[in-house]
# Entry
Amino acid sequence: MVVIHHWDTDGITSAALLIKALNLENLFNLSPPIGEFRFDERIKRAVEEAERVYILDLNLPSEVEKIEKDTIFIDHHPQERIENPLVKQINPALSGEETLSTSFVISRYFDIWNSWSALGTIGDAGTKAFEIPKVRELLARENLSEKEALRLVELIDSNYISMDREGVEEAVRVMLENSARELLTYEPWIKKVEEIKNAIENAILNVEKEDNVALIEFSSPLNIISKVARKAVWEMGYDGALVINSDFHGKAQLYFRVSPRMVERIDLLKVIKELKAKGFSAGGKREVLGCICEKKGVEEALEIIRAHFGGV
Ligand SMILES: [Mn+2]
# Structure
């Protein structure tokens, strides 16, 4: 059987919980290509060869619908009901119940609770997770402070932020073989967090200012663009941050975040719509916009974005 899981802390802790709950000896877990919500050939082949498939924390109902194997699909994202009779879908959102993480859905279903259940929730919900008594109880049971729990999430997430798919998949085994406390000193992850921090610091050195909007351009294979923008707006006090990663695995990444004050004056949803209409792959919310495009498309995308905030 094969376990296919999301690349973030919730996905990784969910896989570890499931493997422990089922007492599986031969680990076989896979994650989709990072940042792409789809099954690639590698996953399709593994599904074909497996007798049973588990899909965890991946909001991919249309991919799951197509699987011709006994499948258990465990998730917490709001999504449609799966029609495929081979699929058992376990998702509290189907009955309107909000659950902050897949790790909690698995823990409840198999009645297996430990710090991983808490970490998955902290990974998805941030400090809001500490309001849940069960999260606090699970951390206390393993003598983990809130600060240590946040650090663990940072360590586990460093795998996908550094775009290390193999590292993501390996992380499940690392979790199963070490206590949460031991993971706090797990060197490969500490190194990755350091690399990420350095890359963010370096990116922020190239900041130009235009009407209190930060313009930042850098080049890095690490997926740090949203963190760079957040830092500029949340920590450095800019009203907005327009960030470009000019070489992200051969493509260009664009990201625009505006402060709560500025959100009143610029409607990013409108900008996203315009970008999409012009054929760009863009997404986001009222306060953030992300776009990935060919390098030669950057100028056009920038022009569209600038036309909207130029008058601010
Ligand atoms: Mn999740």
Q: What stands out?
A: Residues 205-309 form a domain with the Diaminopimelate Epimerase; Chain A, domain 1 fold (CATH 3.10.310.40). The chain has two domains: 2-185, 205-309. Residues 10, 57, 76, 101-102, 124 surround manganese (II) ion (CB under 6 Å).
